[in-house]
Amino acid sequence: MKTKIKIFNSLFWKISGIFLLIMIVLAVIFVKISVDFSAEYSQEAQQKINRGVAGGALQEVNPFFIDGKINEQALHTIMHSMMAVNPSIEVYLLDPEGKILTYVVPYKEVKSTEVSLVEINKFLNGDPDQFIKGDDPRNPGEQKAFSAAPIIENDRMMGYLYIILASKEYTSTTNALQNSYILGLGLRTMALVFLFATIFGLISIAFITRHMNRIIRIVKEFREGNLDARIPVTSKGEMAQMSETFNSMADKIQKNIEELKSVEKLRRELIANVSHDLRSPIASIQGFTETILLKKNSLSEEQELKYLQIIERNTNNLNKLVNDLFELSKLEANPEQLQHEPMQIAELVQDVADKFRVIAKEKNISINTIFSKDLPMVYADIQMTDRVFQNIIDNAIKYCNRGDVITVELELQSKNVMVRVKDTGTGIAQEDLPYIFDRYYKTQKTRNKADSTGLGLAIVKKILDLHKSTIRVFSEVNRGTTFEFGLPVYQV
Asked: Are 486 and 376 in contact (CB under 8 A)?
């Protein structure tokens, strides 16, 4: 039962069913049109063949009227003679206004009292080849093929001889025969057309749905886990567009899955690295604290001070790591927290440089600033921009040796103030450059530095991303490193 339901739910059978239904409807319409046109053709043929019947009858009866009255005997003689020759006609004598004066018809079944002269005038005065139907007095509302001629005596219009060329009985009989013949012909034609159309139609539908079945098969493969499954595009049209759309979607899904795997891997590495870096200072703090407590009576003041300094240094490193993690998480969780305002970028750079000169002086490192006095204000978050400069300069100091120089340059370029932080330090290896802004990434030279959290440059990039600014880095080993980014000029 389920198999049967699946078969009739398939696209092939749905399209085939619709196609067959359309074929049946078209066949019925064809038969109906054929029957109607056959009847129309029969009447038009009768009118063309017998167009002059009424005129010929007038020549046989003369006069039609005697002293203004109908010549009944002569009229009925000719009418009956005409009907004897052609029993399918109906003969009517009309006055000049179209009213029926007398008639000869089977069974005397005449329901109308007059005939419209509009069609009669068209018949008499119009194109002889035009097919015109007139009123049927026996069937009000219907029209039939006719012949007509004016009755003129002594230059006076006396009326019209109006002849219906196919009586009701004749029409009924011929229509029945025609309908039977046309119906039989139509059914035979319909059967042949239906047979061949069905065969070719089903073959065509099978060919079209073959592509759809292939698409469904590939989609099922993708759903079942084969992420490399793609639909081959070998043609154009809607099926090709559907295939290309699926392939594009599959590529995007696969890319997203790979990114999620990468993020998960980074998350695990981050947790492992953070756990390691947290464990090291905590273990050191715990160890030296326990040593001081256990040996407080045997330690000299110099040893105790040394242990306390180690505890303080590890506490500071631990505090810096936690603060960096908290700040980066806060930036990622709430990217709308920036508070842009106009500020003097030169003053900010000078303040940050002054703060780090004390630390740099201990390593005999020089910090220089270069900028124009008429440099315009920029539009940015002051606190966040300050953190960017602090992290970059702090990173530069770590990579510099005694006697190296750090230079901060500010330059106006179009609608941005370009910032360059250069150092003449040890530089960064080319294989490390693409990853230095990754969260918790450490180069070979900083992996053993206790004061490096691996989050400083990640925080820098995140802040500049929120400012819609791009930071670039250029570096050569043993020749130095340059960080470059821009901040928008404040527009009043």
From this structure: no
